[in-house]
């Protein structure tokens, strides 16, 4: 699933490709349901978007917000395999194209999602946190920053392991499976260490590592393991710079101990058994 760096890379691609200032003239859809098998709110999308100019493209965690004239925003989640691209209107629809916003400059903004776990909806600007998908999100570590003391306040007295703690979107919005492993390695903290034993110093180390890991991944266009591409159709380059994720059996970049892989709740975790003591 695309995480914060991949979604931020899409946001920046949309800005570079001059989505801002274009006007949406028509909204089309495949008629297939998306996340949770719910029908797409096509009429609501049409009412909110048709004839409106795009005034900005922002992001909250793993969600994109295409802000429109009139106070509404398109809320987009890429799900497991979705992508959002700007293409010439004459280009044939790719398989699994589910939503198309026709623009006044002859291009389309298209949402393609083979597995249909993504989401396209409407949210009102200034009331984003009232939407069910955004209401429980923690702070965005890049767009908003992690407030001092926030992580320790969330971790104190929790018995879950650190990997599960970081994947909780109510703690920090946008960190997923790939970057949780990278963050914990950088902070020298075991993925199985109880969050309640983190302490204020450990929490500060995690906050610093989150910022460093995510910003580095954004600079490299995000990580493409299988499906992810940016709005320009190109994969991200960060996969070749991952330090532990997917590197089991190779030497730790810090101490040369062999990186291990373990599966927790169906998700692979990568760590160094020497550097990341419990």
Known CATH architecture of the largest domain = Alpha-Beta Barrel
State the total count of DSSP E strands. 10
Shape: elongated
The CATH superfamily title of the largest domain: MutM-like, N-terminal
**In percent, how helical is the residue content?**
10-25%
The helix/strand series, from N terminus to C terminus, equals HEHEEEEEEEHHHHEE
Which regions are unreliable across 5 or more consecutive residues at pLDDT < 50? Answer: none
Q: What is the name of the CATH topology of the largest domain?
A: N-terminal domain of MutM-like DNA repair proteins
**Cα-atom Rg, whole angstroms?**
20 Å
CATH class of the largest domain: Alpha Beta
Query: Which strand order spans the largest sheet, edge to edge or round the barrel?
Result: 1-6-7-5
Give the terminus-to-terminus CA distance: 28 Å
Largest sheet: 4 strands, antiparallel
Number of helices: 6
What is the residue-averaged pLDDT? 92
Class derived from helix and strand content? alpha+beta
**Strand residue percentage:** 15-25%
Can you tell me the number of structural domains? 2
Describe this protein's structure.
The chain has 278 residues and is an alpha+beta fold. It folds into 2 domains: 127 residues, N-terminal domain of MutM-like DNA repair proteins, CATH 3.20.190.10; 122 residues, Helicase, Ruva Protein, domain 3 (Orthogonal Bundle), CATH 1.10.8. The chain has 6 helices and 10 strands. Strand 6 and strand 7 form a beta hairpin. The chain is elongated and about 55 Å long. 43% of the residues are buried.
